[in-house]
């Protein structure tokens, strides 16, 4: 799709020099921490647990991550980068902005059924970091701002100059709202029913607001 949506191209894992800092030990630590943080909670998992499961020495850990907070930020930036890549792929493969939004919605619904799914990583982290000034919270808000902005741009293209044109920003916020609800309630209300309801909600935004 020759979408007009401008997706961020920066690498959130890049160093100050503009090049990602990579090493086998760093990736092993980050992969282990990401799995544990997502499955069990960030504050519930200590550095010693990560070192034991990676495995790695404390010196190796602090050479790559000066603090646990740095590791948490890297974890969330990794999730952010994966989400951006998925959205970008959906937009580029879609025939129209509406199909791009459907593809983004389908990816969300499909994710609910993944065996390893435990909810939205950002919503889970936000519950553990309520301080709006915390660096972790800032990464969460940056991700959500990007997501809503991208959806708004797509809805703007979908609605176009229709005489029944809806408000693209409102539609994007509605999308995020039902996405948050689906990701939070799927394990309680049933993956299939929640996924179907979410897909209907996305289709409703595309067909009823313009």
From TrEMBL:
Q: Which stretches are labeled DNA-binding?
A: 46-65
Annotated HTH tetR-type domain ranges read 23-83
What's in the keyword line of the UniProt record?
A: DNA-binding, Transcription, Transcription regulation
Pfam families (UniProt xref) = TetR_C_13 (PF16925), TetR_N (PF00440)
Asked whether the UniProt record includes Transport among its keywords, one would answer: no
Query: What Gene3D superfamilies does UniProt report for this protein, alphabetically?
Result: Tetracycline Repressor, domain 2 (1.10.357.10)
- Spell out the residue ranges making up region: Disordered: 1-25
Q: Which PANTHER family match?
A: HTH-TYPE TRANSCRIPTIONAL REGULATOR LMRA (PTHR47506:SF3), TRANSCRIPTIONAL REGULATORY PROTEIN (PTHR47506)
Q: Could you identify this protein by its name?
A: TetR/AcrR family transcriptional regulator
Species of the source: Frankia umida
Lineage runs:
Bacteria, Bacillati, Actinomycetota, Actinomycetes, Frankiales
């Amino acid at each position: 799709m020759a979408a007009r949506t401008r997706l961020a191209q920066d690498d959130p894992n890049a160093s100050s020099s503009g090049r990602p800092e990579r090493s086998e030990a760093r990736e092993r630590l980050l992969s282990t921490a990401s799995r544990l943080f997502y499955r069990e909670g960030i504050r519930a998992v200590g550095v010693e647990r990560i070192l034991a499961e990676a495995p790695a020495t404390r010196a190796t850990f602090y050479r790559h991550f000066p603090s646990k907070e740095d590791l948490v930020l890297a974890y969330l930036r990794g999730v952010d980068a994966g989400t951006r890549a998925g959205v970008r792929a959906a937009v580029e493969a879609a025939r129209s902005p509406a199909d791009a939004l459907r593809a983004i919605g389908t990816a969300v619904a499909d994710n609910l059924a993944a065996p390893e799914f435990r909810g939205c990583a950002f919503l889970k982290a936000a519950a553990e970091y309520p301080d709006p000034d915390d660096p972790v919270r800032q990464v969460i808000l940056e991700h959500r701002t990007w997501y809503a902005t991208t959806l708004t741009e797509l809805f703007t293209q979908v609605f176009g100059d229709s005489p029944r044109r809806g408000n693209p920003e409102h539609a994007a916020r509605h999308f995020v709202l039902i996405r948050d609800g689906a990701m939070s309630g799927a394990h309680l209300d049933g993956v299939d029913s929640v996924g179907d309801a979410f897909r209907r909600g996305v289709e409703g935004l595309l067909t009823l607001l313009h």
